[in-house]
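Hi X.,

You mentioned you wanted examples for the new student's onboarding notes, showing what a folding record looks like when two proteins sit in one file. Here is a clean example. The first protein comes first, with its sequence line followed by its structure tokens.
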Amino acid sequence: MLALEKERSKKQGVLLATSGLLLALVVTYALNFVGLETLDTTQFVLAAVLTVLAQVALWLVVHFGWDARLHWDRHYLFVPMTVAIVLLSLYIYLAPPVRMMLLMAWFSSLVFMAGLIGFVGVAMLASMMSIGYLTAIATLINQGAGIYLPLEVTAAATFLVINVYAGVVFERLRREHEETRALRSNLAELAITDPLTGLFNRRHFEEILGDEVARVRRYGGYCALAMLDLDFFKNYNDTLGHLAGDDLLRDLAQMLQRHIRMTDVLARYGGEEFGLIMVNTPREVAIAAMERLRGLVEAYPFRGGSILPDGRLTVSVGIAGCPEDSIDFEELVRRADAALYTAKRQGRNQVQVAAIA
């Protein structure tokens, strides 16, 4: 979805630039009707055709995804702006009486770059525009046009100075944009993350589980849900304190994360309870996997584990499979939770499977 939005935004940028360039051409040509000789009809048509062809090429670059290869131009600004500079320089060459107006038209393009490029980008593009302008003027002078070069150089230098000042403002806007984007990213991550363990939180876990159950229901396949709960965690907290209990939860979360597959989803479900979604995993395979994980927890030398009733940290596990036990999200959670409490009642440190309905 994000990729599609970026593609749409880039295409809209190309279309806006095309509209702006063609508008500049139309205005330039229309000045003929108020007594100012600018473009003749042949020049106008030629410039318009070249503009459309260039902009269509830029649009196709985005459409076919070739812009993804431009790692140095991730916002797809420098390539289109370079093309715009070439086209504006061509307009200036074809219609020298309105060269200042066309040069000033550049500033309208800065609006679309605010927050995306900083001082270096603005200064570089403005320098290219100044060079393009002076190149067109020099060509006209060589062809005998009555243009005073020192005045044009002064105009180009003034244009560049104004852009340098704008670049300072744009650099500030770019930094604020980057900071805002980073803040939004952090907020989005905080919204789905448990602050203590760094795992997914319950809300996001249930969203993923709901999507996975819906996938199985619609397309077939399997998934398994395991609920894990620390045994005698209250004893641990009461003896060593809540800070030690927090450290234990963090250590267990890291240990579990190291021993599950990349495709599995682990979350802190609440308190000392963890949830694990095993994607594309039949229930029988999930049972074997959780027995292995339970054994790893039992053998792991957690700090303070010796003060627990069994002399070590253990977990109880309840498992429910989809579609074996249910193809309903809430029912799957209920059955895995019921299996977990069965494991608790029957002595802890064991894996139990949802009872047959």
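Then the second protein repeats the pattern, sequence line and then tokens:
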Amino acid sequence: MPSATPQSLRKQLSQGKPDPVYLIVGDDEAEMAGLTAEVSAVIEDELRAFNLERMYATDKGVTPAAIVESALTFPMLGDRRVVLVLRAEKIFKPKRRGKGIEDAIGSDDDEPAGDVDVLEAYLKAPEPRTTLVFVASDVDRTRRISKTLQKHATIVECWGLKGAKDARLDLRQVARTAEALVRQAVADAGQQIEPAAARLVAERAGTDIATLRGDVERLLLYAAGKPKIDLKDAQEVVSAETAQDNWAVTTAIQRGETAEALRQLGLALESGAVPYMVLGQLGWFVREKLSTSDPRRVPAAVDALFRTDIDLKSSGGDPRVLLERLVVELSRR
């Protein structure tokens, strides 16, 4: 199947013609989360309880067979069903255990039959009334199941400023791309920005798309109402963020200090922190810290993260209240 860009995927969705199987892969979590939400929107709000299923490959009960069973379920009261499989790297790039033995699926030489074969068979002949979407940070493209996925799924790559996972970076081109993204984001907000200001924000981000998105959102919040953002505005935002302890909230959560975490969250928001930036930091905490310190809590934490992400995108409540609720959940031992 051919690859697709995020823009071409959005065009497909707007035309009501989604493909049967997608792989959304990359490190641009904001872009990936946005695409996932847009695929979900294919199902009407009143039918989502019946025709939209969100599964996490890290959950014990989510096996390849369970995914296929969900995908083969006929839609109710509508003509399409959407099945989202998040953290799908668990299936397509599982961690190794011991001497070459992997979590759920072996290497090409010793890959077991059965459960994986069921998923492979489905990928080769998917149910046309279902859109099955795998969302993964990466896949091992040498594995048999991954090769089948690459052959039969539409692959949407979201590698932020890098363009591709293994692209040789031309830093000047990355800087130009970042600067263009800054200008576009500002224009989409109905404002203008001086070239020097856009360049400063782009330079600070380097190759980190998450940093770029966070800085742009902070800048738009800081300069709200101004017809044109100047260099001084950009300097104020960048210097304020550099001087602040961006990780005070996650540090307090890691210590189990709920009250302190809430206090630090309030300070961050009052100083102009963008809710999505805070959410990204909390996501990093779950992926990098909680997964090693207390892995039993990770599934519930991931559920809370995605629920908060959806609520923020759909204006499902005051951002501060939503983040406070998330902080309390993550702080629980």
